[in-house]
Amino acid sequence: MSSKILVIISAILLAFLLGIPVNAHVVSEKEWLNDPHDHGDAKIVFVKAYQFGFAIKAIQDGSKIIVYPEGSEPSVLEVEEGDRIVFRVISGDVTHGFYIDGYTPTAVGDNRIVIEPGKIVEVGPITFNKPGKIKLRCSVTCGPLHPFMVSDIIVKPNIFFYILMASTFTIAGLTLLYTSRAPENRMLGVSLDKDLDLLKVRVIGPILKRFLQWRGAHFTLILPNLLIFMVVLAAGFFGNPTGNKNFSIAVVWILWFAAVEFLILFGSRTWCTICPLPAFGEWIARRRIYSVHNPRKWTSLGKKWPKSLNNMWVSALSFLGISLIVPWLVTRPVVTGLLFALLIAIPLFTHIIFDPQRNFCRSICPANGYIGYHSNASIFAVRSRDKSVCDKHRPKECIRGSPTGYGCPWKIYPGGHNENTYCGQCYECLRSCPLDNMTLKLRMIGQDLAKIAAKAKNKFDEAWMGFIRFTLAVFYELVFFGPYFWIKDWGNMGIIYGANLATIGLLTPSLEGLNNWFKWALIVAGVALVGYPAVFYGFSWLAKKLAGENGISTRQLFLSFSYALVPYGLFLWLAFAFSLILVNWAYPITAFSDPLGWGWNIFGTKFEWNPISPEVLPYLQAPLLLIGLALAINTTYNIARELLNDHAKAFRATLVMGILHTMAGLVFVWIVAG
């Protein structure tokens, strides 16, 4: 059957199912702007699809036509509520798809609107009867950046945008009003002095305790992930070079990347519990897979880990470094394969060369840094039931180890710590403690933040981790799900090819591509490392002046107030995670049945791309933004109260920083809804 007949059949089925006329015919590009059909009062929008974006070439309204010059075509279409639009679409290179959130049909099988090279497809007329911002997406895999090939359609009046802006101001105002009433040690009305001992909860507690104290628990949790990581490596090097058809991309950068954000909120560092990266090194150093071995007989050279690395700098900068190549990392399987091969080799090296602790996890792992940083906004924590009991107990098995468990491999004192930053939740303290004094607790978000921040006199590493994560949450949403192709192309170095190990040479960039990448890197690193921290410092200085506080330096306020970004940044990343999952859920599920992208369907879970109600995404993201904003302002007040020990001064300082947090929120509002 010829491709022309297939297109005609698809068009007929589409029109029958949804009542949206779709016509396709072969013409030259020169004939594109010549419209042979009478569409009545409908406007005609001429759209050109290309790797990897949509360009509006012309708009015709009756006898009036606006043609945009080459290179200045907009990627955002603005229409009025009630407008009837006919899209005349052409491909500038390869086959693309055409999908408008909430308006065109599902992107499955014959329902897809396919734009083949050399053919013009007419879609419509479509009546845009729902005000707001929606996305035009490519629904046919067209290359590595296909999942992020989007454009914006704004149906005016964009009421939701204005409502969300007003809501941002309202939530900020209400939170400031709440803090003006001098709430002591509370977060949004909830006491920070209360928590729930999970291991004492009936039925659940004893079962959970027995499992975590079992020596094989850690191995049992790690093993499935270790097998998955082996598949990631194999798929990255030898699988389909197109990212969304490859297990290494679909599972790691869609499913895992989104899931970790939710794990942080509800489970703190639970990912570190099940992470397989340090497993080989730890097993070799201990000479055991899960049983306890004499802690003095490590298979290690025992070199001391450099004190200069006992911080979050390497983690923070490596996360930023990964972000500088993220358009390749999340779309090219071979790049992901190389990264994870490196992330397995480094902890193996550190365990054999240095003292057999989790030095890699604590100081190097790019995921560990941000997971540890945000984990202080989690509702979950590993804590001692009574610190005084631990302090009086001299043997300190939680540090030295015991016949039932190793000493803390994260080099902290489990019985006395009050933050999640460097607790990797390996649960060795639950196994080694002879007093049954270690437990798991549920508590309100930010329970320890004020005390942690007040002691952060020289923790520039954690402050900059906060700035990097916060700015990148906003930046990722703009770059990956925004309409601005040029900035994606800069980060992508202009390369249109996917790559595995056999085709890695296709990633060789041109001089122009490298030049554009340097612009991208300068923007990303400049905003994260200099721009936003400078603005934050300026507001900290204003906060100090308005508070009338002379006993504490601006630097101290700057470092301490940065911890308000712990919950704020986490909730922005949760908003981004919704975009990843709801739009691209089919890719990771399919990848389990076809890990190498070779057309298999092992488990019968092969699905075509079909987003779940993407038009409601802004309505899901908005509450997360508002919650994050409220938490940031309340956290700022709690920190200021802890530092300044004066309600009036703390409130005035919070008022200044609240303005900055609100401004940042408005930027995110503009990206998702404006």
Please explain how this structure is put together.
It contains 24 helices and 17 strands. With 674 residues, it is an alpha+beta fold. The protein has three domains: 3-155, Immunoglobulin-like (Sandwich), CATH 2.60.40.420; 186-291 and 298-371 and 453-673, no CATH class; 380-443, Alpha-Beta Plaits (2-Layer Sandwich). Strand 13 and strand 14 form a beta hairpin. The radius of gyration is 27 Å and the shape is globular. The chain starts with a helix and ends with a helix.
Structural class: alpha+beta
Query: What is the count of β-strands?
Result: 17
The main sheet comes to: 6 strands, mixed
Q: Largest sheet, order of strands side by side?
A: 1-10-6-2-3-4
| Overall number of structural domains | 3
Number of helices: 24
The averaged pLDDT comes out at 89
Give me the oligomer status: single chain
Percentage beta strand: 5-15%
Helix content: 40-55%
Low-confidence stretches: 1-19
What value does the Rg take, in angstroms? 27 Å
Question: What gross morphology would you assign?
Answer: globular
Distance between the first and last residues' Cα: 45 Å
How do you describe this structure in short?
49% of the residues lie in helices and 13% in strands. It contains 24 helices and 17 strands.
Write the layout of secondary structure elements.
Blueprint: H1 3-18, E1 22-26, E2 43-50, E3 53-61, E4 64-67, E5 76-80, E6 84-91, E7 96-97, E8 99-100, E9 114-115, E10 119-127, E11 132-137, E12 150-156, H2 159-179, E13 186-187, E14 190-191, E15 195-197, H3 204-213, H4 217-238, H5 247-267, H6 270-274, H7 279-286, H8 313-324, H9 326-329, H10 333-353, H11 359-363, H12 366-374, E16 380-384, H13 387-392, H14 397-400, H15 428-432, E17 438-443, H16 449-454, H17 460-481, H18 485-492, H19 511-547, H20 554-561, H21 565-584, H22 586-593, H23 617-644, H24 647-673
Parallel strand pairs: 2-6, 5-12
Antiparallel strand pairs: 1-10, 2-3, 3-4, 6-10, 7-9, 8-11, 11-12, 13-14, 15-17, 16-17
